[in-house]
From TrEMBL:
Gene: cca
Residues involved in ATP binding: G30, R33, R114, D157, R160, R163, R166
Protein name: CCA-adding enzyme
Species annotation: Halobacillus shinanisalinarum
Chemical reaction(s) catalysed: a tRNA precursor + 2 CTP + ATP = a tRNA with a 3' CCA end + 3 diphosphate; a tRNA with a 3' CCA end + 2 CTP + ATP = a tRNA with a 3' CCACCA end + 3 diphosphate
Subunit structure of this chain's protein: Homodimer.
Length: 400
């Protein structure tokens, strides 16, 4: 949504504009929770008594992103804010969208449709917190409690069960017994939720400070029975990484180690992950294979692993219990004689010249690969003459 850092200052100015035009408005949802907690905020969402048309008449840059649900995106002072008309929601036959959205006239009614007390607070332009469900108290008691009846809340949107556990992990909070019971009774409703949405929550869960508790809750409350792959493998439900995992590439590399019979491709397919995640997980996995073979960070590993995955790789190693230092990758990569194949002093054309009578074929690329490996691992100097001498001993070339 908002690519920029959210600005509370601009949000308050935006509230003032709406108030001056005669409409009530509040900051709502996660932003209020994070302000009260003194934690970095995500997006800042606004709820208002103005209809989308009225919001459009107040601001010049408004994008109608969900008019039927009362939501527009306001670009204001170089920031984007989702502004939604006070509303309630009725009936969730498809477990995704409310059958009916009714605009209402009070912030209290709007807050009453929300998932958890800590997410059901509002803040006005003076910074006063409207807190009809005692979210502040629950923040200080560090609990995730549903607004009203937990069963009803999860029936409306079963993803909220994942959210409950995700917040418990991120904030290191407990979930109330009522929430636990409602998840335990209705976990099967997760079958109605798109796996992509579940993936977003699960990713945040395993990256949270309280991920161990989060994983434990998924296990004891029966959530794992409805998550792809986990459902069929009890051993994965009880596997607890030794450190937090950030993102699905790390996550599936870790779980692939727990049950090698389940391929990365299967993880990607069943969880509908992106090609980027797939590429990254394959890189992490081959680095891991190399690491396990040598029981240390090797030159070849440092050469092959894309630099932007170095920190991820260290995290996966730690999650698997390998005693590895955070600087391990940098220490080895500074010793690399070359960083890419272009830096090789002996290229394909040189190899072809060395064997003028040989027909072109796959021996060229495998020959270059052998040279690359020998240079990177310092068995061979990256000097044309040295390599030429080495190559001349191949008779015929090492492979074809
Ligand atoms: N299934 C959901 C999703 C969201 N909400 C409400 O909508 C707000 C905004 O939701 P979202 O942006 O998805 O999450 P945040 O709570 O803001 O948390 P974060 O930004 O950390 O993901 C929530 O605080 C909550 O009040 C809800 O009631 N039920």
């Amino acid at each position: 949504m908002n690519k920029h850092k959210p600005s509370l200052h601009s949000a308050f100015n935006l509230l003032s504009c709406l108030e001056e035009a005669g409409y009530e408005s509040h900051i709502v949802g996660g932003a209020v929770r994070d302000i009260v907690l003194g934690r970095p905020m995500g997006d800042i969402d606004i709820a208002t008594s103005a209809t989308p048309q009225q919001v459009m008449s107040v601001f010049s840059h408004v994008i109608p992103i969900g008019i039927d649900h009362g939501t527009v995106m306001v670009r204001y002072q170089s920031h984007s804010f989702e502004v939604t008309t006070y509303r309630t929601e009725e009936g969730y036959t498809d477990f995704r969208h409310p059958d009916e959205v009714a605009f209402v006239n009070s912030i209290r009614k709007d807050l009453s449709r929300r998932d958890f007390t800590i997410n059901a607070m509002a803040m006005n332009q003076n910074g006063d917190v409207i807190d009809p469900f005692h979210g502040k108290k629950d923040l200080s008691k560090r609990v995730i409690r549903a607004v009203g009846d937990a069963h009803t809340r999860f029936n409306e949107d079963p993803l909220r069960m994942m959210r409950a556990i995700r917040f418990a992990s991120q904030l290191q909070f407990e979930v109330t017994e009522e929430v636990k019971q409602a998840i335990y009774n209705q976990a099967s409703l997760l079958n109605h939720i798109a796996v992509e949405r579940i993936a977003v929550e699960f990713e945040k869960l395993v990256a949270g400070k309280g991920y161990q508790n989060g994983i434990h809750l998924c296990d004891t409350l029966g959530v794992f029975s409805y998550l792809p792959i986990f459902s069929a493998h009890r051993s994965l439900q009880v596997a607890v990484p030794r450190q937090k995992l950030f993102g699905f590439a790390q996550l599936i590399t870790y779980y692939r180690e727990q049950t090698p019979t389940i391929s990365l491709q299967k993880w990607v397919k069943d969880w509908k992950l992106s090609n980027r995640v797939k590429r990254e997980a394959l890189s992490l996995h081959s680095a891991l294979t190399e690491y396990k073979q040598h029981d240390e960070m090797t030159l070849w590993l440092a050469y092959q692993l894309p630099e932007h995955l170095a920190a991820s790789f260290i995290q996966v190693l730690k999650a698997l219990g390998y005693p590895v230092k955070k600087e391990a990758f940098t220490e080895v990569s500074t010793l690399l004689p070359i960083h890419s194949i272009d830096e090789l002093a002996f290229q394909a054309r040189d190899l072809i010249k060395a064997f003028p009578n040989l027909e072109k074929g796959s021996w060229i690329s495998s020959g270059i690969e052998s040279i690359e490996y020998a240079v990177v691992t310092k068995q061979l100097n990256n000097k044309y003459e040295h390599i030429k001498e080495w190559v001349d001993q191949w008779n015929p070339p090492a492979s074809n």
